[in-house]
Specification:
Chain lengths: ~110, ~1000
């Protein structure tokens, strides 16, 4: 049952790859970011499904913001079973934008 | 016909129906969702193209409910439109057929379906809304009619345009017609049944019908109007019925589905049908009555099929009715249609697939029938006919509803039970899981980006363009160092050896003046040491010179010619300041070193207590060769009474004191040890050891009168081996005699490790002293004359040891006898030598011959002189008259000639006796006039003893009470031994 446990490291790697795929050599543009976030979230979700976490339900959150020197702080709080549920997250940053992608895996009994 | 009440009832009924439809639709939702979704997808494009015209004709409510259907109707493609129309028509026909069929099959069940609407009927508060609907309906009806007129005139091309609205209406009308037909047929059937069966029911129904006749009339009018419209188009439509056969399959499928739906939502359908049935019944009655009126309408519908026409004819009378009454009814079919439409739509979708499956239709049809039959049977089994009938018609009120509810609840209860079991299962699982799963709150920091600082921003914007940031720190080596420690104390010192300019050290903190002083004192020390060296050296040199001088021309040494016959000349002791006012009380030469002289001085005569030297007794060590000043000055805190040298070498000086103590001076001690009192001739040496510090019992308790070492020069000279043994020089005993007749013997001990700090145990020992006296024994002299033994203690004056046998000692006493004692042993003979005089006299001086002959001379204070042989108690010779009874001070044997002795009396007369020449008279009598002689002392003759310088002649010391001390050289005739003198003396005793 616990053969495939949501492994943060692997998922993070995957997210990293996805973020780099989507965002490398991109500059911030307010119009496109909505689509980007959707696309990134979807691709993360599909790749998560490919990873074989059959018993998991996923929540993928992608935030893209512009880099203009302001400070940003993002935090999340989860009420869950830490034994099974986990969370992976990666950050992509370049000169104009930052992107925080987080994937939460919640075990479904 | 239309009246307020009738209208209202009618409206209410309509509303019920509508509600039922809505409900149906809602229930249908669950299963129809998929279908609807597909429908939406299909109609998605149409939705936008819906023209606004629609809005004029339909109320918003209708729009919302009928959207899908209407959209379809407004498809832009005429062909499609036509085909759709055709399909609809076919569907309608099929529905009619099926309804007919159902009407027959489901006849029994229909009446029950009235229940539901009646329940909802209760609320009945939405009158306004209904009115509004009615008004809308009225307007619409006006418009429709107008359009209908035009449409009739128009040809088929126009028809398509107009058809939009008509289609709906027709659609609905057709349905109504169909339903009415069914109902009528069913009613007939049911009536037959009921007539055959239950009379009461029919009666009740008739009553009801009567009540609601007016309402029904209105409905019928509406139907008639619709029929009219429909009939217009029917001719045209008929052509298009080619596909009907195929459509029939679809109908069947639809039926099937409908049946299924019906099974599920039986209640609702039943309600609907009940409503319809009611209407139908009413309508039927009315139709029958008004058949004549419909005549004109029938003419128009002649072309239509028999079935249809009859239906139409039945519904015909509508046009005669007033518009206002019939209008509201138009709404009704819409709702029904809506419900039907879903299935139609569904069919449509499946049509494409199912068109060619003709043979399947047969099977499905059979299945439908089977299903229906089963349903009916099940219904029958569930409800008795009586209850059915009573329920459906006559109990429109809550009781009816409650019944229907029980039915619903029963089914739903099943479901509920099922769902409950499922729910409980899942709940149990959830509970189990919940017990295993522990939920916790975890907080993550997903992203934390700090705001860009101004400098970074600056660098970001300007830092990239050909600039470079370079950092330089200036004054890097400008550092302050601080440390705090205590100051180091430094002092400069220097020293120089040998000292230059009398200063050999200096530096900070050393006062140059002090240095000078130290230097000077140091110089002093040096000088003293030099002086000591010179002293010794000069002594040696002086002796050597003396000897040389003597060998060249003897007698030159003598300073002055002596007036006395005994001497060849004399020299005088120098008188230093220390000795001022002190005359020599007693003196002695060192037995082995005749040139060493020890003089004991009296207390100063004049009261010169101012000088520190005057407070203590003084002894002086002299070198005979150098008499100008004493070699050493010995001081003591008491008055010395007697003194002597150590026998073998003049290294120690002993002195007995008035207070009974015995003091020892170690002459080898350096001058540095004695610095307390200084004189011009050197420091005053204080005793190295003083018995005054020892226990009182060991000490003398009266003045010490005589002191002599237990040592014999004669004996040592006879035993030559011991003569030069200097190492044994200190191993001798000391005998002291106190005035009260106690002889003490002391052992001289040398301390190997002197303690400069002084000794804690030997209180008499001076710091750094190396010599001390240990008392070995004490002997009490007893009065030898027992007859005269008086209580008064014996006074003794002199102690002499027998040179040849040191065990024997002789003590001069005041009882007229000389006591003979031994150190070891008990008995001696004679115990005493008596003076043979009548009265006891005090023997003042005795002397034992230093030679082998054992003669003792004793001088008494009555002027008598006795000569004893040691073995004889009585004197050999007693001489009385020569001195004129003057006390004799001192008697001494000559150290050179055994037969010669000297006698000194208190009148300063020196008598010289020679036994060989004259035994009874002195050979010479020298009267010394220069002063009163207090003491006389003889030195050993080196020729006899073999010690000391052989060239030195024997000397005699005479001391005067005025302080002068003369050392006379004894004349040669007195110092040259005569031949056979000794033998003579030996025989001399035999003469007596």
């Amino acid at each position: 049952m616990f053969d495939t446990i949501f492994r943060s490291v692997m998922v993070k790697e995957m997210i990293h790859v996805v973020l780099n795929e989507h965002l490398s050599d991109k500059e911030y543009s307010a119009e496109d970011t909505t689509e980007w976030t959707k696309a990134i979230a979807d691709s993360i979700k599909t790749k998560l499904k490919d990873l074989g976490y059959d018993r998991y339900k996923f929540i993928v959150q992608v935030v893209i913001g512009e880099q203009r020197g302001e400070g940003v702080k993002m935090a999340c709080r989860c009420f869950w079973d830490s034994d099974t549920d986990n969370y992976a997250q990666d950050i992509f940053m370049n000169d104009t934008l930052f992107c925080v992608a987080a994937a939460f895996g919640v075990f479904y009994y | 016909m239309p009246s307020g009440k009738g209208n209202r009832d009618d409206l209410e009924r309509k509303r019920h129906r509508r509600d039922a439809d809505e409900k149906h639709r809602h229930h249908d939702d669950d299963e129809g969702r998929d279908r609807r979704r597909r429908k939406d997808e299909l109609n998605g494009h149409d939705a936008r193209r819906r023209p606004p015209v629609d809005d004029e004709k339909k109320t918003p409510q209708k729009e919302s409910t009928n959207d899908g259907r209407r959209r379809r109707n407004f498809s832009p493609e005429p062909d499609v439109h036509i085909t759709e129309e055709e399909r609809e028509r076919q569907r309608r026909e099929r529905r009619e057929k099926r309804e007919r069929k159902e009407g027959k099959t489901d006849d029994k069940r229909r009446p029950k379906k009235e229940e539901k609407p009646l329940i909802i009927n209760d609320d009945g508060g939405d009158y306004d809304r209904r009115r509004r609907d009615k008004d809308n309906g009225d307007n619409r009806k006006h418009r429709d009619r107008r359009e209908d007129e035009v449409r009739r005139a128009d040809d088929e091309d126009d028809y398509r345009k107009r058809h939009r609205d008509d289609d709906h209406r027709r659609h609905r009308d057709d349905e109504n017609d169909r339903r009415d037909k069914h109902r009528r047929e069913k009613d007939k059937e049911s009536k037959h049944k009921k007539e055959n069966g239950v009379e009461e029911k029919r009666e009740r129904r008739k009553d009801e019908r009567r009540d609601k006749d007016r309402d029904r009339q209105r409905d019928r009018d509406r139907d008639e109007q619709k029929d009219r419209d429909r009939d217009k188009h029917r001719d045209r439509e008929r052509d298009e019925r080619k596909d009907r056969d195929r459509d029939r399959h679809r109908d069947r499928e639809r039926d099937e589905r409908k049946d299924r739906d019906r099974d599920r939502h039986r209640d609702r359908e039943r309600d609907e049908q009940k409503d319809k049935d009611q209407d139908r019944h009413k309508r039927k009655d009315k139709d029958e009555r008004r058949s004549s009126i419909k005549a004109d309408d029938e003419q128009r519908s002649t072309e239509k099929s028999g079935n249809r026409r009859t239906n139409l004819e039945q519904k015909a009378p509508a046009p005669n009715k007033p518009d206002t009454d019939s209008e509201p009814d138009e709404e009704e079919p819409y709702y029904e249609d809506d419900f039907e439409d879903y299935e139609e739509d569904f069919e449509e979708d499946e049509d494409e697939a199912g068109k060619k499956e003709g043979e399947m239709d047969e099977v499905l049809k059979a299945l439908d029938e089977e299903n229906n039959r089963l349903q009916v049977e099940s219904h029958r089994s569930n409800w008795s006919d009586s209850t059915e009938l009573s329920d459906e018609r006559f109990r429109d009120t809550p009781p009816n509803a409650s019944r229907s509810h029980t039915f619903i609840n029963f089914v739903s209860a099943k479901e509920r039970v099922l769902s409950h079991t499922m729910a409980s299962k899942t709940r149990r699982r959830a509970e189990d899981l919940a017990s295993m799963i522990e939920l916790d709150t975890v907080a993550y920091d997903m992203f934390d980006m700090h705001p860009v600082k101004e400098y970074e921003l600056y660098i970001r914007s300007f830092g990239r363009s050909n600039t470079k940031q370079v950092y330089v720190q200036t004054n890097e080596d400008n550092l302050d160092h601080e440390a705090q420690t205590d100051d180091v104390d430094t002092k400069d010192k220097w020293t120089q050896n040998p000292a230059e300019d009398l200063v050999d050290c200096g530096g900070d903190g050393i006062d140059s003046e002090d240095v000078r002083k130290d230097i000077s004192s140091g110089k002093h020390v040096e000088i003293a040491r030099l002086g000591m060296f010179l002293e010794r050296a000069s002594q040696t040199i002086g002796i050597l010179l003396e000897e040389e001088l003597e060998s060249q021309e003897g007698g030159n040494l003598l300073n002055t010619q002596s007036c006395i016959a005994v001497s060849d000349g004399y020299s005088q002791l120098g008188t230093s300041k220390v000795l001022q006012g002190r005359h020599v009380v007693c003196a002695c030469f060192c037995p082995s070193q005749p040139d060493m002289l020890l003089t004991m001085h009296s207390t100063p005569t004049e009261n010169s207590a101012s000088t520190p030297e005057s407070r203590f007794g003084v002894l002086c060590v002299w070198n005979v060769g150098e008499l100008s000043s004493p070699q050493k000055i010995l001081g003591c805190n008491s008055q010395p009474t007697c003194c002597c040298f150590s026998p073998s070498k003049a290294t120690l000086a002993f002195s007995g004191m008035v207070d009974g103590s015995v003091a020892v001076w170690d002459l080898r001690e350096p001058v540095s040890m004695h610095r307390a009192v200084k004189t011009e001739s050197g420091p005053v040496r204080f005793p190295t050891f003083n018995t005054a510090g020892i226990a009182e019992t060991d000490n003398h308790h009266s003045p010490v009168v005589s002191i002599t070492p237990v040592f014999s020069v004669m004996a040592s000279s006879q035993k030559n081996e011991n003569v030069n043994d200097v190492s044994t020089g200190l191993s001798f005993q000391l005998a002291t005699l106190e005035e009260n007749g106690i002889v003490c013997l002391w052992v001289i001990a040398e301390i190997s490790n002197p303690d400069a700090a002084g000794s804690e145990h030997d209180l008499g020992l001076a710091p750094g002293g190396r010599i001390k006296l240990l008392k070995s024994s004490s002997i009490t002299i007893e009065n030898p004359r027992k007859e005269i033994r008086v209580k008064t203690s014996l006074h003794t004056s002199e102690l002499q040891l027998m040179p040849s046998d040191l065990n024997h000692f002789y003590v001069a006493t005041d009882c007229g006898s000389i006591v003979h004692g031994v150190r070891f042993g008990t008995r001696v003979f004679p115990r005493a030598y008596s003076t043979v005089t009548e009265s006891p006299v005090t023997v003042t001086s005795i002397d034992i011959s230093p030679f082998t002959t054992s003669y003792i001379i004793a001088g008494c204070d009555d002027g008598s002189l006795h000569i004893y042989h040691t073995k004889l108690q009585n004197p050999l010779i007693s001489l009385v008259e020569f001195s004129q009874e003057k006390p004799i001070l001192c008697v001494r044997w000559s150290r050179s000639r055994p037969a010669v002795f000297y006698v000194l009396d208190s009148q300063s007369k020196l008598y010289v006796f020679d036994i060989i020449e004259h035994s009874s008279v002195p050979v010479q009598t020298n009267t010394i006039t220069s002063g009163r002689v207090v003491s006389m002392c003889l030195s050993n003759d080196p020729k006899v003893t073999g010690l000391g310088s052989v060239s030195r002649p024997p000397q005699m010391l005479l001391s005067f009470d005025d302080g002068r001390t003369e050392i006379h050289t004894i004349k040669k005739e007195l110092s040259e031994p005569q031949t056979l003198e000794e033998e003579f003396l030996e025989k001399y005793v035999d003469k007596f």
